[in-house]
Amino acid sequence: MRVVVSVGGSVLVPTPEENRVEPYAAVIEGLAASGHEVAAVVGGGGVAREYIGAARDLGANEIELDQLGIAVTRLNARLLLAALDEPVAASTVAENYEGADEALHRGDIAVMGGVVPAQTTDAVAAALAEYVNADLLVYATSVPGVFTADPNEDPDAERHDELTAEQLVETVATMEMTAGASAPVDLLATKVIQRAGLETIVLDGSDPERVRRAVEAGEFDGTRVVGER
Ligand SMILES: Nc1ncnc2c1ncn2[C@@H]1O[C@H](COP(=O)(O)OP(=O)(O)OP(=O)(O)O)[C@@H](O)[C@H]1O
Ligand SMILES: O=c1ccn([C@@H]2O[C@H](COP(=O)(O)O)[C@@H](O)[C@H]2O)c(=O)[nH]1
User: Fold this and answer.
1) Tens of pLDDT along 78-112?
2) Ligand 2 contact via 63 beta carbon (within 6 Å)
3) pTM of the full structure
4) Does the annotation place 116 within a ligand binding site?
5) Binding positions for ATP (predicted)?
6) What phi and psi values does residue 189 have, to the nearest 5 degrees?
């Protein structure tokens, strides 16, 4: 199976000292060893938000803030790359979709961070999945799926176990899109998922084993977005 795994920065690198980079690298290498073609897209997490917050206070505009965010996503991606064995992974973080596609064609694990302003790595993962014709797109994020409302704000929020792409678009349409904003999947990503008919899973990525089980066995506790073209 060809799979794109989007790993939230808050999941992979909650802080540079306390990170989940090694266990994630082990799961990704394990998937590759059992015959899957894997691309990982890494988010910026709390570190990106700290930089974005500091620069916002200094008067930077949203595009400049996005550029800072992209830089941090690429740093986090380099951290993941550092933990992956060189013979099985690309030697650099791909800065565009062609570079990631080339890595997959070489038989390497591809690793990306952000690409351009005004989106998040959620959209990068969806666009990459469309570009490389992935069979599955997995969002390993800080919440166990897409809810009716923000589960960190609303105790009555209920998880959607299954959504169509159209329903996913509607669910996230009103969410904020400023630099560093939080959403389980950003709006642009949902539109790409919809147009490409990508089979997509959103799950709690705090334990990377959940990603392995979702890919290997199709077992997960989260939200499935039904891929229909
Ligand atoms: N309807 C909703 N369903 C689920 N989560 C929601 C919803 N609305 C808002 N959220 C928020 O979306 C966030 C999703 O995770 P968040 O963007 O913080 O991190 P991530 O996906 O791990 O990536 P990164 O940290 O790299 O940005 C959560 O903080 C959650 O509070
Ligand atoms: O392609 C991209 C990716 C990211 N950004 C900016 O970086 C932050 C952090 O990324 P997350 O994926 O949310 O962790 C994001 O909020 C954007 O401001 C970007 O502009 N373009």
Assistant:
1) 999 999 987 888 889 999 999 999 999 999 999 99
2) no
3) 0.97
4) yes
5) 9-10, 45, 49, 141, 147, 150
6) -60, -45
